[in-house]
Amino acid sequence: MGVEVYFANGVRNIVPYYHGRAAFAKGRWFKRTLLEVLVGEFSADSRDEYLEGIKNGKYRIIREGFPLPPEEVLTSPIRNSDVVETNSHKHEPPVKQWCDEEVDIPGKKVAGIDIVYEDENMLVLDKPNGIPIHPTGQFYQNTLTEILKTRNKEARPCYRLDKVTSGLLIMGKTKAIANEIQAKIRSRDMDKIYLARVSGKFPKSECLTRGIEDHLPTPFEDKSMITTADSATYTVELKKSFPAGLSVPKTAATSFYPLRYFPNHNQTLVACKPLTGRTHQIRIHLARMGFPIVNDPFYNVENSKYPYRSEFILDVEDWENCPLTADDLRKEFELFDEECDKAREKQQSEQKSLVCEECGSIQAETPPLKELELWLHAWKYSDSSQTFTYETKPPAWVNEVCLADG
Fold first, then answer.
1. Cα separation of 217 and 375, whole Å?
2. Catalytic annotation, pick one of 45, 162, 318, 383
3. Is 135 left (phi over 0), alpha (psi -120 to 50) or beta?
4. Alpha-carbon distance 354 to 366, whole Å?
5. Is 104 tagged catalytic?
6. How confident is the model over 20-61, as pLDDT tens digits?
7. What residue ranges in 68-226 does DSSP mark as E strands?
């Protein structure tokens, strides 16, 4: 699908477009009208909105290869082999603009993104921050994998990097290659080193000398400089109800090595080596140690829109083995929900929203650029035999003064 892209105020925007999805009708839908199915099984819109959607062609039934007229869709029960089609006017959120021109330079850049390595099996990129890797939530065309497809490059990410995180992204050009690389990562035969800029003077920073640049190419060589955090981590998903919304706590360990201390900012550049592969473990461990990533929008409580939930995750390392009872945890989860609702209401009241003339939906204004960047960068990946070794260039914020300061 071709989409129109434009840049403004430091973000990459996509002009709203129509997006269709089609699927064979489910057996339980047979002998029911499409309106009955939409009202009974989906709660996104009201009955009147679904009715209007059928009349204007947003929801259709394709029978024997031809769309039924809207009036027949309203009266004809769904049959076996019917195809239900939805067409929506998509408003994708913007992502951070990573370059002035999304140019392709064979072996060097694709869509303006730096290529670290490429052959017939693999594509290794230096992912910009502020862009999701693959379609999720409201994002579809404004994602890395979909942008690559417009460049005739099909590639599967071998691991996850958050939208706001930058750095090394290894992708397989086939499912088999991606699975092979993922197996290598799961076997813990892969060293991963991230860079993070944290608040405060990190442990062992006082041992750094003026020749700290010598540490940057090869951190973790001096064992006396390493600090290791070891605590269970988990996530909170408010889309799920309690207790499913609290993921199972899993053991996690991360080693840290200070690289530079910035006294003017009271911040430290730290190399991070996750010894396990848990979601957000670097961010959580740093925050629990009292050295959160400077601009972390969630685990740095000073920045968080949801400080109560953030503090709970930092204070309660393992909710399954803590003094709180099931009723206590349920009440905490309810407070997370209330906090989220209040934050959403506050954001909506502060936004200057525009109404789309095409579909009537609300278009929120562009988020601040600082919310699209995290000072966490996937820097190096290598296996034990050093036959599988990749490295990106360090981001601008490794220096004393960077563009994002202030």
1. 19
2. 162
3. beta
4. 11
5. no
6. 888 899 999 999 999 999 998 887 788 998 999 899 888 999
7. 83-90, 95-96, 109-110, 113-118, 122-127, 156-157, 166-172, 190-199
Q: Strand 376-383 vs strand 166-172: parallel, antiparallel, or unpaired? A: parallel
The mean per-residue pLDDT over the stretch 121-141 comes to 93
Contact call for residues 222 and 204 (beta carbons, < 8 A): no
Q: What is the predicted pLDDT for the residue at 217?
A: 65
Quote the crossing angle between the two packed helices 47-55 and 34-41, to the nearest 10°: 140
Going from the N-terminus, what domains does the chain have, and what CATH number goes with each? 17-90 (3.10.290.10), 95-343+368-398 (3.30.2350.10)
Peptide bond just before 16 cis, omega within 30 deg: no
Residue-wise pLDDT for 374-394, tens only, equals 999 999 998 877 777 899 999
Please give the helix or strand (H or E) that residue 22 lies within, else none: strand 17-24
DSSP codes of every residue in 51-65: HHHHHTTSEEEEETT
pTM of the model as a whole: 0.86
Residues 151/104, Cβ–Cβ less than 8 Å: yes
CA pair distance 247, 369, nearest whole angstrom: 30
Task: Show the tokens assigned to 178.
Answer: 């991606």
User: What is the amino acid identity at position 397?
Assistant: W
| 363-366: long-range contacts, CB 8 A cutoff, minimum separation 24 | 363/16, 363/91, 364/93, 366/8, 366/9, 366/11, 366/13, 366/94
